[in-house]
Amino acid sequence: MANYKTPLRDMRFVYNELLDPEQIQALPGFEEISSDLVEALLEESARFCEEQLQPLNRSGDEEGCHFDNGNVTTPEGFKEAYNGFCEIGLNSLTSDPEYGGQGLPRSVATFAEEAMCGANFSFSLYPGLTAGAIHSIELYGSDELKKTFLPNMVDGSWSGSMCLTEPHCGTDLGLCRTKAIPQDDNSYLLSGTKMFITAGEHDLTDNIIHLVLARTPDAPDGIKGISLFIVPKISVTKDGSLGEANGVSCGSIEHKMGIHASATCVMNFDNAKGFLVGNLNKGMEAMFVMMNNARLGVGIQGLGVAEASYQGAVEYARDRLQGRALTGVKNPDEKADPILVHPDVRRMLLTQRALIEGNRALAAWVAFELDVSHNHPDEKRRKQANDFIVLMTPVVKSFMTDCGSEVSNIGMQVLGGHGYIRENGMEQYVRDARIAQIYEGTNGIQALDLLGRKMPEHFGRNMRPFFHAVRNYIYAKEMNYELKDFLIPLAKAFGRLQKITAVLAQRGMKNPDEIGTASSDYLRMLALVALAHQWARMAEIGMQKNKGDDGVFYQAKIDTARFYFERILPQTGALFATMMAGAKSTMSFNDDAF
Amino acid sequence: MKILVAVKRVVDYNVKIRVNADNSAVDLANVKMSINPFDEIAVEEAIRIKEANKADEIIVVSIGPKENQETIRSALALGADRGLLMQTDEETQPLAVAKILKYVVEAESPDLVILGKQAIDDDSNQTGQMLSALMNWPQGTFASKIDLMDNEVNVTREIDGGLETIRLKLPAVITTDLRLNEPRYAKLPNIMKAKKKPLDIQQVSETGIDIKPRLTTIKVTEPAQRSAGIKVSSVTELVEKLRNEAKVI
Ligand SMILES: Cc1cc2nc3c(=O)[nH]c(=O)nc-3n(C[C@H](O)[C@H](O)[C@H](O)COP(=O)(O)OP(=O)(O)OC[C@H]3O[C@@H](n4cnc5c(N)ncnc54)[C@H](O)[C@@H]3O)c2cc1C
What we know:
The complex is a heterodimer of chains A (594) and B (249). Chain A is α+β, with helices and mostly antiparallel strands. Chain A has a domain at 457-586. Chain A has helices at 8-18, 21-26, 35-53, 55-63, 78-87, 106-119, 121-140, 143-154, 283-319, 343-375, 379-414, 426-434, 443-454, 457-460, 464-477, 484-510, 512-545, 551-567, 571-580, 584-587; strands at residues 66-68, 71-73, 158-163, 179-182, 188-198, 207-214, 227-232, 234-236, 242-245, 248-253, 264-277. In chain A, strands 3, 4, 5, 6, 7, 10 and 11 form a seven-stranded mixed beta sheet that branches. Chain A has a two-stranded antiparallel sheet with strand order 1-2. Chain A has a two-stranded antiparallel sheet with strand order 8-9. The relative contact order of chain A is 0.09. By secondary structure, chain B is of the alpha/beta class. Chain B has one domain (2-244): HUPs (Rossmann fold, 3-Layer(aba) Sandwich), CATH 3.40.50.620. Helix content of chain B is 27%, strand content 27%. Chain B contains six helices and eleven strands. Chain B has helices at residues 37-51, 68-78, 94-108, 127-135, 188-194, 235-244; strands at 2-7, 9-11, 33-35, 57-64, 82-87, 112-116, 139-148, 152-159, 162-169, 172-176, 199-203. A nine-stranded mixed beta sheet of chain B has the order 9-8-7-10-6-1-4-5-11, sandwiched between helices. A two-stranded antiparallel sheet of chain B has the order 2-3. At the A-B interface, α3 of A face α2 and α5 of B. Bound molecules: flavin-adenine dinucleotide. The site of flavin-adenine dinucleotide has 19 residues of chain A, from β3, β5 and α13.
């Protein structure tokens, strides 16, 4: 079990055939990113993840992190793996070359991230949080802050954390109480307690650079009074070397359901010296821009862990002999057939596969548009890409992590009782996957963000790039008879999505609870349509190539697409009916009766 | 000090090999190919020698079709300085390879040639020895330790009874064994930089070297399936079976 192999074949397909590598290479800054270079980069990244990170996945889960008097140690092997990881540059794929990064497209790095998460979800969080912190400083930090902190963070010798959550303040960051008192030298002294801070304290790096949300004494109440600060664990002197300890300490670490090898810390700030990032009281804006990137990353966590679970399930289903096929013996040499013959097992495996490959395609599209939004020479095109990302960020975060959970649960089911046993590794995926639905903004909040904010913003402008892309695809392929099995259901589901969008926009104006009640269903429906669009495209390519070289791969694309269209996409019908029913039954229920 | 390393492109060691339909060869369609693991060890060793400031230049040579450029690039990404592809689509057997390498050695005049002891596809274990004979250079095969001095090199060899250390005069040919070193991962930025390192291509057909195969492959078959084991009930039975059935004692 638990022998994760990076799905390089499918990644190559997505990169070379679904995306357009020439378009990526045409973006200023990516001139040298040829397909064969991407191939070489991904192969080496995959090899490292499989050989160095994966062996620490189970052991890290069993051992967990250790807390001793404020010090946190990661499980055995993590430090060596982390050093190797940074040595080969897996930590700095997309960072700015000016600070030592490799400046690779996000559409390339996404695949490497998937491999890290598939091989070792917990491990991936240490560099993952650092990447988030780097990104915030890149976008909003002054030149001086960049110079002081970025080079060491980019080369991995310092790591980062994101300190938002406080005991009484989770989703509603406006409740944040951590104080920042301005000092004469332009710095601030921060005091307060943060909790649930991933990688807040650990033994992998010499310094940890915390990005902390806090409030200055005369800041307005609520969300409009929040600012973002850099607070290093150890102060950095003028010449860039490490000085004395700052007023930051770790109070304890959490005992939790999964990601045991990732330290989740209570962080105490006690007159800790910090520096403002971006403008005063504009901390949330800085967070939001950074989050487009980070939330795609969290979606990828769901994808990586789902793939790992699928691989374990397939391997088991081939080997496990149990019962006979309903239509007669398939394996006469043995006393039973492999469970792969049973319709219900096939249903499980194909559901996993259809969701995984569909999500991989969708994530690549979003990652590509992220690249366009940063690097395209034409401002109009950049804006359009940005609209697309703004809309799709909550979708990929939420749907892909829901799938991470759904798919890893299915994987456990395929193994029956053996899936429930720790040693076999499948239940760890379920436990690890679960957190991604909660942190970085719960999935419920993502849905609300999509339907309550992203959809109506600028009179629906954010919706345009996605809706137009799907519509144009349907129009363009309408006459393609071969594609009818895919196009007709796609058009139907898309029609439903358009209709419900209009209905909800209207109802929402009268009663915001209509939006709140429908949002999770709406997000799922939009995601299912987005996957249908990708599956139609994949089937189309499959049909052109299933007779040639590697025809088995392409035929499987067509067959998985068929499964998706026949057995998953119809969920949109039920979601449509659910949403049409409206908010009443949910909202009129008597609170005291709960 | 100049080191020449020869690398072969072979089926990746993780791939489950299948024989093609007409039993004429191993099926290579859509199969992942990689640098021969022993050759990767050879590249690593050359890089370590250079990192110890005992060599100035590492040249990587590969013989085969144009796809071998990838194999050369992967060695360049590890740290070799420049590459040379001796291009041919013909089958090349060890003697032909040794002759082509001799041609390259004469053109480049390296002080040391390092090769893998064998390639994991045909397991010939001949090329290094043949090259040494053709050049009339000393050879240190199956190296598990290499200690380079000014005009000489100590090579610790893995032999049946244990280890043997020999001293060779330079220039010399060395073939690597598994325990010589553990190759590093390529740094990702170096994979990008490797694209810019020089890689020359020469057609074998233009060198006039006779590479005609001397061996003919008659048939390729899968190894016999292992038959199920049995449990013996006593030591006497075991001894009896080892003697009469397995005929090993
Ligand atoms: C393992 C782990 C790692 C974490 N890492 C970090 C980290 O590195 N940095 C950091 O800052 N935080 C981190 N968090 C915190 C995490 O982001 C929060 O737990 C999350 O944002 C939810 O906040 P909460 O737990 O206070 O839940 P609450 O906000 O109390 O929410 C409870 C429930 O109510 C729902 N809800 C709340 N408000 C609304 C609303 N307005 N409309 C509809 N539904 C609503 C939520 O969706 C949720 O289902 C981590 C948490 C965990 C468990």
